[in-house]
Structures are given as C-alpha cells and as structure tokens.
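stuck on this:

***
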Amino acid sequence: MTLRPARLLADKIQAELAPMCERIAIAGSIRRACPEINDIDLVILPLAGQLQAIKARCLRKCLPAIDGPQNFICRFPPTGPFRGLRLDIFFAHPEQRDLLSVIPSNWGSLLLCRTGSKEHNARLCSRALSMGLKWSPYRGLLGPATPGGEPDQVIASATEEDILAALGLEWIPPVVR
C-alpha cells in the first residue's frame, strides 16, 4: 500500500481508538514517510481499564494474529480494500511510582523503536553498548547494575529526546531514520 492511503487509514484508526487512550501515536514506516507501507504501527498508552476495549474494537474489522500483554497484532481480512494489511499495536505503560523509586513510562522507548528503521535501531543499540548501556525497547535505555546490585536501572525511556540525549545524540527526525 502506498503512503497516502495507509496514512488515511492510520489516522482513522487513531481517531477511533483515541477516546480509550491516554496517548496514541502512529509509528513505523508511516511516521518515517516511506513510499510503501506493509503495516500500520501504533504506540498506545491505554486509559486504565481500556486495554480489552481497544483489542475488541480492532477485532470488529481485523483477525487476531498475536495477543500479548505488550503488543496486539491483527490483520485485515484477505478480501477488501486493505487485503491482509497488518495492524501492530504496542502498549506503553504509565510512569510507576512507589515509596522508594520511580519507573518512567516507556512511551518514548516504544515510539523510538517502533518508528525504526531497523538499521537506525541497530545503530542506537550499538551506541548504547559502546557507552556500557543497553537499550531495551519495552523498558528504555538501561544503565549497568549499581554497586548495591540493583540491575539495569532505567536511565531514559519517557521520550525519544531523553533517550537520544542520554546517548549523546541530537534529535533525529523520523523521515531520516
């Protein structure tokens, strides 16, 4: 599918799901403005209690492929205007606070990863490793274990800008990734 009809469909799906979301963004090849689109990628931070409603809404028009706690993938039917096109939804978690710590939302990390490209993501992983860090898309940019033994502290994950800055990089627009 070419970019324009894919973008129109993604915008329509985003509008349908938005009332059930705290945040929702189109990612992937559509966000990178690639001329050919193979799937629609969305990153979603569902409102509390809305995860199943989001999945149910997608299943009105799509067939399920993967139904997991971190992602939901379905396909449009093999007939019709969107023949077999995939809809890939990735679920972010909100910031989590307890008495002693804060785990930031992984929104930015998921958006960065799911926007890609694959080559861009590989460069970010290599950059992180060269700095003694690692990038886990579902958690964020992780630092080494602390002297007290606390493993993999999240250094940055809430925004793409936070992650890139922690890697010593400037903002990289999606269309050049």
